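Bit of a strange request maybe. I'm writing a small parser for structure token strings and I need a real example to test against, not something I typed by hand. Could someone generate the tokens for this chain?
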Amino acid sequence: MPTITALRAVNFVALALLTGVALAWMAAGGFGRAGFFLAPVTMLGEVPAALRMVTPDLLCVSLAVAGLAALRRGPWPLAAGCCALATLERPDFVLFPAALLGVALVARSGVRAAAGCLGAAALAYAATMLAGDHPGWWVHFSVSLIERPADFAAAPPFSLDAYLRAFARANYGNLATQGWPALALLLAACWLLLRERWADRQADLLFAALLLSLAARCVVFPMPDDRLYLPTVMMLAMLVAERWGRGPRRPAAR
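Reply from user aminoacidic:
Good idea to test on real output. This should exercise your parser:
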């Protein structure tokens, strides 16, 4: 295939994987009615836009959701493998398993699974950095958020003042021009409102880890672009859908 056609074909495969994982998770978890909730969230999260792009974001989304589903319903080694593959697609995904391990250590729950996911993701991250001859965090940050030099070698040395200025400017751009902060805030509000419907400690820890990974992303590399936050937003949406769909129903009227 021509390059652009091949990349779009990969996106269609990723969409099929995402749909299949979501449907299988909903069927196994008994929250199929949550599809009415997920459909608009998927559109607000700009999944259709990601389908048209020639970027690895949609494939990362599908692998991330598969990893989350494995953490909820499957063996953790499968989740670790999905985290590693998602990190190969987008190296910044490593922030989620790192946040998950931090939350697990504090809560003293699920440490083994979280450590396995982080270990697999860290290996994938290291392989990507070495194989791709990555110039390093600061050079990438500087080129993307401060100034684009003629080549990476001309990037300025680290400056705390330059970092703080770029940090403030980029996060203001996220709040003022991007849709993901509002969608994440809405999902967090839904989570709090639905918390009493279905008690699940693991789900609470996963949700906290996802929010923590979003916060870490805003510190490490706050690029104002919705597609970069889409994997985390869709994982949040799946957890909210699970809690909403599995909540206790009112008794039928006689």
